[in-house]
Structures are given as C-alpha cells and as structure tokens.
Amino acid sequence: MCGIVGFSGNQSAREKTGSGKKVRDILIEGLYSLEYRGYDSAGIAVTDEKGKITVVKSSGRVEELDHMTEKNEKMNSGICGIAHTRWATHGRPTTANAHPHSSEKVTIVHNGIIDNYVDLKKMLEGDGYVFLSETDTETVCHLIDREYKKTSDPIEAIRNSLDYLKGSYALAIMFNDRPGEIWATRKDNPLIVAKGEDGCYLASDIPALLHHTRDIYRPADGEILCLNGEKVVLFDREGREKNFEFSHIDWNVNAADKEGFPHFMLKEIFEEPDAVRRCVSHRIGEDGLPDFSVDGIPDEMWNSFDSIQIISCGSATHAGYVGRYLIEALADVPVTVNTASEYRYMPPAFVGKTLAIAISQSGETADTLAALRKAKEKGCTSAGIINVFGSAIARESDYVMYTNAGPEIAVATTKGYTTQVAVLSLIACKLALARGRMTKEEALSYCDSLKNAVPDAIGNITERRDEIKKAAMRISKQHDVYFIGRGPDYYAGIECSLKLKEISYIHSEAYAAGELKHGTLALIEKDTPVIALCTDGMYYEKMNGNIREVRARDCYLLLVHSPSFPHPEEFSDDRFELPEVPAVFTPIVSVVFAQLLAYETAVMLGCDVDHPRNLAKSVTVE
Ligand code: G6P
Predict the structure, then answer these.
(1) 128 lies in the same domain as 176
(2) Whether residue 411 has its Cβ less than 6 Å from ligand 1
(3) What does the alpha-carbon distance between residue 257 and residue 178 come to, in Å, rounded to a whole number?
(4) For the sheet containing 507-512, what is the strand order?
(5) How far is CA 284 from CA 40, 328, 385, 417, in A?
(6) Using an 8 Å Cβ cutoff, are 172 and 108 in contact?
(7) Is residue 622 part of a domain?
(8) Pocket test for ligand 1, best of 619, 620, 621 (most atoms within 8 A of CB)
(9) Which residue range forms the structural domain that includes residue 283?
(10) Distance in Å, CA 619 to ligand 1 centroid
(11) Are residues 277 and 300 both part of a single domain?
C-alpha cells in the first residue's frame, strides 16, 4: 500500500556539523525502503527556504523518480520535503494521479481512502477549484487550501478540514508560506514521527526511519503534528498543544537491509529459526511452561472465556487455521477462524464469553482493525498477535502478544507466519494446562520441542536448498499445482499454496486430501504436480488412498513427509523428507519447505520475488 516519507531538516545543526544529507536523498532513500509495501507510482515535493515547492512525479518505480531528480538543482537545495509511493485505488497509476497533489497554498501526500470524496469534489468545484487528477486525495488538498485561506492558521485549517472527511487517512502537508514545516495527521492509517540529529522525520513505516533514528512516536487518530526541523510539536483534535514522549524501538539497523541475500524473502526465511526460537523462549517461564506474563496477561485470563474467534487476513488467517486445530485438539476450546473483511458485516454466533484474537504481522491491516472493533463492540475481550510494535491493532487490543520477528520487508510473509503459529502453539498449551487437558509433563516436553526441535528443524530445511531447487525446476514448468493433506497438513497446505501462487504466479490450490475427488480431481492430468503433505502416521491409510487416486491419473507426485510416515518407493515420483518434530508442529516446519520452493520457483521464472505484481505488504484500505 501507499508509503509516506517526510523530512524537515534542522538547518542550524546541519550547518554546524556540515554532515547533513540532502533532503532529496533522504526522501528518495526513504521511498526505496518503503518499496516493499507495494506501489505503482511515486512522487516527491521539496521546499526551499522561501517556500517555493518543487514537485516531481513518476508513473513508474522509485528508481525512475531517483533518476529524474538526482540532478535537479531545486530538489538538491531543499530544506524540507514530503514524498510518496502510490498504490492506485481512485484512478489509474498515471503521473497526474501520483502524489504529491498541490493547491494554491498547499501540497500534500495521502494514504488511505476518502469515502465522501465525490460530494467534497462537487462542493470544492462549486468554490472554483479545478481538479487535475482522478484521485480522492486532491479533494483533501483543495479542502485544506480553502480552509487555510480562511484562517491563515494551519491547525485551524487542518481541524476544520477533518470535520469534512469521511474515511481513512494519513496526511503529510506543506504550506507554501511556512517553509521548513511539515504538518501531519492521521485516522485509521499508519504514520510515525521521529526525531534525529539532522531533523525531524515522518513515515508510514519503521524501515524508512531505521537508518536515522529509532526514537519514534505514533500519533493517535485525530492528533495533529508539526515538524519544524528542530522539534515535533503535537496538538490534540481540539488544537491544544500536548506533551508526548518518543519510544525507543530495538529493531536492528541492519534489519531493513538485505545483508548479502539477493532478496528480502530469502533473508527472512533464513531468519526463521532465530525468530521462532526468540518468540517462544520469551514466553516459556523458568518452570519450562508457557508464561504470558511478559505480555502482561494474567493467568486468570486463560480461564475467563468459553470460545475464541480468530480474525485476520491472508496468511495470518492461515496461521489461524493451524491455531484452531491446535487449540481445539489440545484444549477443547471452540474456535472459529474468520476472514476479517467478512467478520465486520457478519460475525459468527457468539458462544458464551468470547476472546477475539486478531492476528496481523503489520498490525495495520484495515479489515482486521475494523473486525477487531466489531468484536469489542460485541463485548469480546480482545488479544492481538502482532509483529509491529505500537501498531494500530496492537494499540486497540486489550492484550498484545508481539511475535518479535523483526521487520518483515518481502511482501510474501514468511517469518511473520511461522512466529504467529508459534505463539498460537503456546496459547494452545497454556489453555490445555489451564483447563486440565494436558499434564505438566506433556506440557514440558511440548514446550521444549517448540523451543528447540522446531527451530532446529527449520534451520535444517534452509540448508537443503539444492534439493528444493530440483523440485522447483519441475514445478516451474507447470501451470497448476495442488497441495493435499489431512489435519494439520491440510492447514499448512493452504499457506504453502498461497506462497507459491503469490510470488511465482503459478496457479495453485490446497485441498483436504479426502475432498479432492469431489470435483477438483477432474483437473488432474498427466504430469500435473500434486504435493502431498504427510506428517502424521495416523493419516497413513487414508492418505495412501488419496495419493493412489491422483497417481492413477498420472500426476507428478511430490511427497513431503516426516521420517516416520511410511513412504514406499512406488508411492511418489519424488520426495522431500522433513526433519522429525512432533506431529502437532509440522505446519511450522513443512511451510518453510514450501516458502523455499515458492522462492526458488519464482527466481527461476524471473519474477520480482520481493514485490509480487498487484500485491501490497500492509493493506491499509478495506
Ligand atoms: C497482505 C500481505 C499478506 C498478509 C496479509 C495480512 O495481503 O501481502 O502477506 O498475510 O496482508 O497482513 P497482516 O499484516 O495483517 O498480517
């Protein structure tokens, strides 16, 4: 989704140290680091000391904008600026529609959607404003311009404009008679401000700031900020100045670099053993049992509800399926897994007291946030399983369990997913203990495997890229791939299938193995790849039957199995043996095989692995 970067230089500090980077360079570097969010056009606006604003836009990649501006004198001598990557919603990805948009006195960039822009546009046209783009953003720009002309006061102009706006927004605004200042506000869209030695920064996500500072502040909905180079001043919705504190984030500066890997996705797959180990160890107490006191969750909480509703989007929902399987199988607590975009209009029936668990890597997904609000409205206690510290969903949840995976840059999630499943695995154990469904000994062995055997097994898979490349060679020549499995293997298969299709563009589906014959078997023909996930011997007989069904249609059968799952020679064309882990944990492990399979396939096909077409990392529109 769209990305915002802003920088207002502290001129005296920059002159004193003589080390100040050019404003243009800071903004363009910021845009590069937000590329992972997904976008289709980009733009930049830089102000000089007299308030003259220069805007350059491109309907292509940031690289193009970089080339267009690198020798531009006005860009290079600026003191303050805002920049944007746009993910088209209202109007095609053209230069005219790219941000920044300008009115007579105002230049802005915007993330989000203005729901009532058609009415606002009519109103502003009535006032004589002429529109040059098809965007909803341009209405906001003219609206602030109109209000600013009435009051000459930026706070009043912004406050009055917000009264008109319906929808979601993060806005960065420059007034051409206030050189050096950036004004900002937000509602239901991410925005972070930060202060460094060189000046004040603003961005829609942390990676854009990591090289400058790690002291950040996330404004609440409706707060208004002024960045004036030396400091950030905060005002509440009523325009009163307000105190605030920056919080320090401990993400490593290198976390937003590829560190020698060709793609972020590969780097993030290789980070999974540590990420899972860290996420789990953090929540295993000295007694070797799950302990969520680090998240401030009291033990009584786990006995305070009758059912769980999981709300999420994309891969987070797939993590939710695995979570449901574990929680129901181990703790016998009823769980529903809900696609957030549907939940907010039609949540499932509420069974007794309900805990709503919102799962989100970014913590900013608009549908998940809206669903969380709906759950709270219905009286649920809420908990978030979130990666990004201080994000909107984290802030609005009653309890937050951070996955601590570090920044995830590749659009296709990898360590985000596995750490979500790791937290859900611990929740299942905690609930099973709290409800007397698991003995202490069983729980000790479970936690020990999750903390040691599982990260080791993931590490083992990352070391076997050559084997996986061989399989990818075969897959990369096909149009359709089917994943089949039963129980946890089916749930893992859903995520495996999504990984393959989203980055290699090869059509792929996942089926409960017993269900394939109810229609989809019609699509299996000679050499169609079927990947059978077989990790729990309990399903051997039935999987055997399902595998024979597809083999009888001459498919290419790739068996992905645990060492103990029977695997006679004639069973498959090829096989990949997973390291041994208890069957309940295989979804965390087999998925890593599929992440690498998808990665190698996409690389072979020359796909843009980190930025798959049409997709965005953080989906902040509903
Ligand atoms: C986007 C991403 C997916 C992700 C989904 C939910 O579609 O491309 O990888 O699973 O959003 O994101 P969240 O940040 O809420 O986990």
Answers:
(1) yes
(2) yes
(3) 35
(4) 507-512, 480-485, 529-534, 556-561, 574-577
(5) 43, 21, 16, 20
(6) yes
(7) no
(8) 619
(9) 261-460
(10) 7
(11) yes
Distance CA 24, CA 18 (A): 16
Of the candidates 309, 405, 319, 410, which has an alpha carbon nearest to the alpha carbon of residue 618?
410
Query: Is 194 in the same domain as 308?
Result: no
Are 138 and 249 members of one domain?
A: yes
Judge if 150 and 203 occupy the same domain.
yes
211 with 65, same domain?
Answer: yes
Query: Could you tell me which residues are beta bridge partners of residue 316?
Result: none
Q: Report pLDDT digits (tens) over 70-129.
A: 988 888 888 999 999 988 777 787 889 999 999 999 999 999 889 899 999 999 999 999
From 460, 491, 518, the end of a domain falls on: 460
- In the chain, the amino acid numbered 68 is M
Tell me how many degrees the CA angle 134-135-141 measures, rounded to the nearest 5: 120
> Which tokens sit at 568?
């006679």
Q: Give the contacts of 8 (CB within 8 A, at least 6 positions apart).
A: 79, 80, 180, 181, 182, 199, 200, 227, 228, 229
Closest CA to 241 of 252, 249, 233: 233
| Biggest CA-to-CA distance, the chain | 81
Q: Is 368 in the pocket of ligand 1 (CB under 6 A)?
A: yes
DSSP per position, 354-400: EEEEEEESSS--HHHHHHHHHHHHTT-EEEEEESSTT-HHHHHSSEE
Select from 37, 337, 618, 620 the residue to mutate for testing ligand 1; criterion: most ligand atoms less than 8 Å from CB. Answer: 618
Name the 3-class secondary structure at 78. coil
Whether residue 246 sits in one domain with residue 216: yes
Domain stops at, among 254, 289, 319:
254
Position 17 scores a pLDDT of: 62
What CATH number is associated with residue 513?
3.40.50.10490
pLDDT digits (tens, 9 = 90+) for 136-183: 999 999 999 999 999 999 999 999 999 999 988 999 999 999 999 999
Tell me how far the alpha carbon of residue 618 lies from the centroid of ligand 1, in angstroms. Answer: 6
Q: How confident is the model at residue 66 (pLDDT cuts 50, 70, 90)?
A: very high
Q: Which residues are marked as active site?
A: 2, 617
Q: Are residues 315 and 455 in the same domain?
A: yes
Specify if 616 maps to a domain.
Answer: no
Total structural domains in the chain? 3
Q: Is residue 617 part of a domain?
A: no
Contacts of 158 (CB under 8 A, 6+ apart): 144, 147, 173, 183, 185, 224
Q: 360 CB less than 6 Å from ligand 1?
A: yes
> DSSP H helical segments within 476-561, as ranges?
488-504, 540-551
